[in-house]
């Protein structure tokens, strides 16, 4: 999704802006641009990669000590140079993340005032609006504050002015934005990874904050002008963690990082003999213990993690659980219960729909809230009563992998804690479960060792146009996740079904061109699943079965079986998703798609 970098420093900031944009590339974008002040306003824009923008800057010898830069993921208007940011009005340049919902009404007013629009974007209204305010308000900071009171929607924005080259004004509402403090100047960005090149000292802006940065200082105020202080936080993000190292793609790196990511996430229970509510925050015993039901809200892969957790929470902790897609829940008329534990799951913690769904649940009086999130400084984490930070490390590939398995580890811990608070976990079971959890990183490593066989299977998939994924019970969400991974990065159409549903419709799709992937660990539903697979074979479908050591299935005509090294009981979902990630990755490699930045998608979906 869109990214912002801004800088005012005692140096040529163009290399910093470009490097910042490179660090934000993983979020997904379709065009890029920058503007600098250097005896006038100089703007460069390009459709395509940041590298093309860098080449333009090199060719034109663009430099300046104040500048703003942007990667755009198209929402209003096609990906094109005219729609790329920055947008200009008079001597003013603006970059913006988010969506201005009342842009059409503002556009009409501004056109009536004589402003000419040169793009189809909602952002351009901000440029003209600030310019209009500057006709009556002389100070840029005050003019931006006045302009944003007219905006409805979500934004993080940065504005600079030709006649005032010593400062940049930024503001945030709904989209993330932070400031960086360095010895040579001040910076702003939508993501800390863009600024690690110059500083670790970050100031996270709150919704409703405006700030002004200059070489020598910064000031932050609320929209009404009241000055506020925000803490300076030393970012713990490792600069190395966002480097590719010896891997070919971030997705590959992140799949193989899963044993470490899980070990880090489970570190808190490393030597413990019991699970403690405190893992989820100081008030967790009261918040979790008093809940009568659980409502999980999330999107995409994080929603799949929630679906797996429902099986655990109901079977192990005996607590009713529903799982909703955040973008649906936020607009649905539901029946609230104040004693519901609302669990939001998100890798980024900035997903607009998940944040809005949480706010909606809170507005209905449900205040027992928990965030399971991979980014400690994210908006989501700041808005819940309890939190569990997964320690997957930065996830750059658009396809979520290590975030998913670490979310599952966190959700299993949550299940055990709630089970214990509800008197459903005896000491012996608790010890056994903790031993099983501690072994997960090693078990995942053994699954990763199956890569050569999975790579061979990928060759058989690359010519296919469709695929069907089947699972039962808690492995049905794993089938959903496998299908999402395949379609997301290889563009092969894939659907997932609970295997028992096959004969109620999807069986009609099965013929010899339809590969059917089955998630088949030796659980209580395996025999039922085997019958479903027979239904596929009888129609000529080719089966690819991910079984485990105890599944007692082997290769036969039209049936390919890969056994995971061990059967893992309730935690088998954590293991069985890994070969599906590897399969998608290798199919995408064979097809030559852009693995880390699949077409049309963004890493962090900060707009509705
Ligand atoms: O950051 P979040 O976990 O909230 O993101 C939710 C989805 O956008 C995300 O999981 C998406 O489905 C992934 N690209 C799937 O691989």
Element layout with pairings:
Layout: E1 3-9, H1 14-24, E2 31-37, E3 41-47, H2 50-60, E4 66-72, E5 87-89, E6 92-100, H3 103-112, H4 123-133, H5 140-148, E7 153-161, E8 164-173, E9 178-182, E10 185-189, E11 201-204, E12 209-214, E13 218-222, E14 227-228, E15 232-234, H6 250-256, H7 258-265, H8 284-289, E16 293-298, H9 300-317, E17 321-325, H10 326-329, E18 340-346, H11 352-363, E19 368-373, H12 379-382, E20 386-389, H13 402-421, H14 427-448, H15 451-461, E21 466-471, H16 476-490, E22 493-498, E23 515-520, H17 526-538, E24 542-548, E25 559-564, H18 572-591
Parallel strand pairs: 16-17, 16-18, 18-19, 19-20, 21-22, 21-23, 23-24, 24-25
Antiparallel strand pairs: 1-4, 1-10, 2-3, 2-4, 5-6, 6-7, 7-8, 8-12, 9-10, 9-11, 11-15, 12-13, 13-14
Helix pairs in contact: 1-2, 3-4, 4-5, 7-13, 7-14, 9-13, 9-16, 14-18, 15-18, 16-18
**What would the CATH topology of the largest domain be?**
Glutamine Phosphoribosylpyrophosphate, subunit 1, domain 1
Order of adjacent strands in the largest pleated sheet: 3-2-4-1-10-9-11-15
Kindly estimate the percentage of residues that lie in beta strands according to DSSP. 15-25%
Number of strands: 25
The dominant shape is: globular
Cα separation of the termini: 11 Å
Helix content: 25-40%
Considering the protein shown, what is the CATH homologous superfamily of the largest domain?
Aminohydrolase, N-terminal nucleophile (Ntn) domain
Which architecture name of the largest domain does CATH use?
4-Layer Sandwich
Structural class: alpha/beta
Oligomer: single chain
């Amino acid at each position: 999704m869109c990214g912002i970098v801004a800088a005012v420093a005692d140096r040529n900031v163009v290399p910093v802006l470009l490097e910042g944009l490179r660090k934000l590339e993983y979020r997904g974008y379709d065009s890029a641009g920058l503007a600098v002040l250097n005896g006038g306003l100089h703007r460069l824009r390009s459709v395509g990669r940041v590298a093309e923008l860098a080449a333009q800057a090199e060719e034109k010898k663009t430099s300046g000590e104040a500048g703003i830069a942007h990667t755009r993921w198209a929402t209003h208007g096609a990906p094109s140079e005219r729609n790329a940011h920055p947008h200009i009005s008079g001597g003013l340049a603006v970059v913006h993340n988010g969506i201005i919902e009342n842009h059409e009404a503002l556009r009409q007013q501004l056109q009536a005032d004589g402003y000419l629009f040169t793009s189809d974007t909602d952002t351009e209204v901000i440029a003209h609006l600030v310019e209009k305010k500057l006709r009556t308000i002389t100070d840029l900071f005050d003019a931006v504050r006045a302009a944003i009171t007219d905006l409805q929607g979500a934004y993080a924005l940065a504005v600079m002015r030709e006649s005032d080259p010593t400062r940049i004004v930024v503001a945030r509402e709904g989209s993330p934005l932070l400031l960086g403090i360095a010895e040579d100047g001040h910076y702003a960005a939508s993501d800390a990874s863009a600024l690690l090149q110059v500083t670790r000292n970050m100031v996270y802006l709150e919704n409703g904050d405006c700030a002004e940065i200059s070489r020598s200082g910064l000031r932050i105020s609320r929209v009404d002008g009241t000055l506020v202080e925000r803490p300076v936080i030393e970012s713990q993000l490792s600069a190395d963690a966002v480097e590719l190292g010896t891997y070919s793609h971030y997705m590959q790196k992140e799949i193989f990082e899963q044993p470490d990511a899980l070990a880090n996430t489970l570190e808190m229970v490393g030597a413990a003999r019991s699970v403690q509510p405190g893992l989820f925050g100081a008030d967790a015993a009261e918040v979790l213990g008093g809940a009568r039901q659980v409502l999980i809200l999330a999107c995409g892969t994080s929603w799949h993690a929630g679906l797996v957790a429902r099986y655990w929470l109901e079977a192990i902790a005996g607590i009713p659980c529903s799982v909703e897609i955040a973008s649906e829940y936020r607009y649905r008329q539901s029946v609230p219960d104040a004693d519901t534990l609302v669990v939001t799951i998100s890798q980024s913690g900035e997903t607009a729909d998940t944040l809005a769904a949480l706010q909606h649940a809170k507005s209905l009086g449900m205040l027992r809230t928990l965030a399971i999130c991979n980014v400690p400084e994210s908006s989501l984490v700041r808005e819940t009563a309890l939190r569990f930070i997964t320690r997957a490390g930065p996830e750059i590939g658009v396809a979520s992998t290590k975030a998913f398995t670490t979310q599952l580890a966190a959700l299993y811990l949550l299940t055990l804690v709630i089970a214990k608070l509800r008197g459903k976990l005896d000491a012996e079971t608790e010890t056994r479960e903790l031993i099983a959890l501690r072994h997960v990183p090693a078990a995942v490593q053994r699954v990763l060792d199956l890569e050569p066989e999975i790579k061979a299977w990928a060759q058989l998939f690359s010519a296919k146009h469709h695929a069907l994924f089947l699972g039962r019970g808690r492995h049905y969400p794993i089938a959903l996740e496998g299908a999402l991974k395949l379609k997301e990065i290889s563009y092969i159409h894939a659907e997932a079904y609970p295997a028992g549903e096959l004969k109620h419709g999807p069986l009609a799709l099965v013929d010899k061109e339809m590969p059917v992937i089955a998630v088949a660990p030796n659980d209580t539903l395996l025999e039922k699943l085997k019958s479903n697979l027979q239904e596929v074979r009888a129609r000529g479908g080719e089966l690819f079965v991910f079984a485990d050591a105890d599944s007692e299935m082997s290769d036969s005509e039209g049936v390919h079986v890969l056994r995971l090294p061990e059967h893992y009981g309730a935690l088998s979902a954590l293991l069985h998703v890994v070969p599906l990630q590897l399969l998608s990755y290798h199919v995408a490699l064979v097809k030559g798609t852009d693995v880390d930045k699949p077409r049309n998608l963004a890493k962090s979906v900060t707009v509705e």
